[in-house]
Amino acid sequence: MEIVIGLILLICVYVLAILYLRRLDSEIHWDWKTIDTDDLHFPDNFLWGTAMAAYQVEGGCTNNNWNEWERATDSDGRPRIRNGAVVGAACDHWNRYEDDIRLIKDLGLKAYRFSLEWSKIEPAEGQFDQAVLKHYSNVIDAILKAGIEPMITLYHFTHPIWFRQLGAFEKIENIDHFQRFCERVFNEYSDRVPKWCTINEIEVEATQSYFTGDWPPGEQDGQIMGKVMRHLLEAHVRVYRALKSLPNGEKVQIGLVKNIFQFDPWRPWHLIDQICCRLLNRVFNGGIIEFFKTGRFRLFIPGLVNVTHVNRFAISANDFIGLNYYSHLVVKFKWDPQDFFQFRLRPRETPTDMDYTIYPEGFYRALKQIGKLGLPIYVTENGIADHRDDRREHYIRRYLYALSKAIVTGSDVRGYFYWSLLDNFEWSEGYSMKFGLYKVDFESQKRVLRDGAVAYREIITRHG
Ligand code: BGC
Fold first, then answer.
1. pLDDT over 90 percentage in the chain
2. What is the pLDDT of residues 127-154, one digit of tens each?
3. 339 or 140: whose pLDDT is higher?
4. 360-371 vs 392-408: helix crossing angle, rounded to 10
5. Inter-axis angle of helices 202-210 and 222-244, to 10 degrees?
6. CA-closest residue to ligand 1 atom 12
7. Which of 355, 382, 427, 437, when mutated, tests ligand 1's pocket best, judged by the most ligand atoms within 8 Å of its CB?
8. From atom 9 of ligand 1, which residue's Cα is the shortest distance away?
9. Is the dihedral angle over the CA atoms 153, 155, 160, 163 positive or is it negative?
10. Under the phi-then-psi rule, with left for phi > 0, alpha for psi from -120 to 50, and beta for the rest, what region is 447?
11. Which of 327, 356, 426, 431 has the most ligand 1 atoms within 8 A of CB, as the residue to mutate?
């Protein structure tokens, strides 16, 4: 009898635990057969744009951490980048920016988010290259001349080799170097650039570079990952405050760019899948969002990471929040001490060329989650890698439907930047991923608008 009661109690506790965990932002799926994806609503003055990042498109980035990484091999002598690719001339955007701005204009877009390559601007510690500063000034003028609004990203995964040699963001004192660079370029361009993103995706940088080891410097240490997150968060707050106190500081808008990938359990009834997801969501999403809500950052996973950081200024350190959203990751726990979980693709969801699926419902969830910060939101990146171009239109229509639904139900979203204008160098995936609205032939540097991208132009025309 006691055994039966014990078992019943155990089952009750299990069911209650599952019910509790499922209450917390759980996976949703809409019945797309009943949805009209043309039923879209966007506010007046909604900012339609596209985004790129310097290293991925400019060419000639020979002095940064990624450039070193491209040439490195792992302990088995294999290249770090897929197919041993090196970035090289990329899209030669450095020289072809005027043509590319014309392409943005042809699509009817009103905004362009791009990043400044720190290693070109400050090639040696404390030495700023005037010609490079002038180049970016010309780029900004060309964007404005085309009637397009520039949005600058100050840090998009790359930093100069000298900064790497000093220990990059592993050391809190190095934030000063980053701040000096930010102040310098802000003084140059803030009279013409109304929106500034400080750091692109703290969580991606910290986890890829210091936990999975897939990105430079290839560390696999949870504690260092946590420390780098803490320093990047602190860097954002300091840079925000410093820029706000400079001329034009009060006039422009400055914000962080947060990536959200939800971690959803492969088996929603499975307590360990659920717990894995709770932990991953905490590391990747929850901890950072909480920092900007409360001023307190806490990552604690026994044996893996134990980091705390408090800075009350974080609460008011964003004029807007940038959201990069692509998909969710579905997690299945494994009894394997080498590798406790694996990522699976839900069979009901269409795959992209990256190792995740098309999941517009997650975009809606992410907008609601980031909305808890109570800030205006810009979707600073969203797009699909689709080399066959047979899913891009479907992706655009469904994700924009999810965006519209979030707005209609109260999310304060002010703009959307499609990633990316051009095919480009996709970090450790090299040139294998085709995110571009325009296909790029890297031999001839010819750009051709993809059929799947036409939907974006149509929607903008209808809702611009
Ligand atoms: C990054 C981009 C990248 C894109 C597509 C984002 O996380 O900011 O640089 O190319 O994802 O994977």
1. 92
2. 999 999 999 999 999 999 999 999 999 9
3. 140
4. 30
5. 150
6. 426
7. 427
8. 53
9. positive
10. beta
11. 426
* Distances, alpha carbon 189 to alpha carbons 2, 51, 314, 342, in Å: 74, 18, 25, 45
Among 80, 87, 96, 97, CA closest to 62? 87
Q: Where are the domains of the chain?
A: 2-463
The single residue listed with the structure tokens 């791009």 is: 114
Query: In sequence order, which ranges of 107-201 are alpha helices (DSSP H)?
Result: 118-121, 130-145, 161-165, 175-189
Mean pLDDT of 384-409: 98
Residue found under tokens 């498109």: 57
3-state class (DSSP) for residue 47: strand
- pLDDT for 214 equals 97
Is the pLDDT at 181 greater than 80? The verdict is yes
Beta bridge partners of 422: 438
Both tokens assigned to 411: 């999310």
Count Cβ atoms below 10 Å from residue 367 Cβ, excluding itself: 24
| Measured distance CA(464)–CA(461) in Å, rounded | 5
CATH 3.20.20.80 for the 2-463 domain, yes or no:
yes
Residue nearest to atom 5 of ligand 1 (CA): 426
Q: Are 57 and 99 in contact (CB under 8 A)?
A: no
**How many Å apart are CA 279 and CA 272, to the nearest integer?**
11
pTM: 0.96
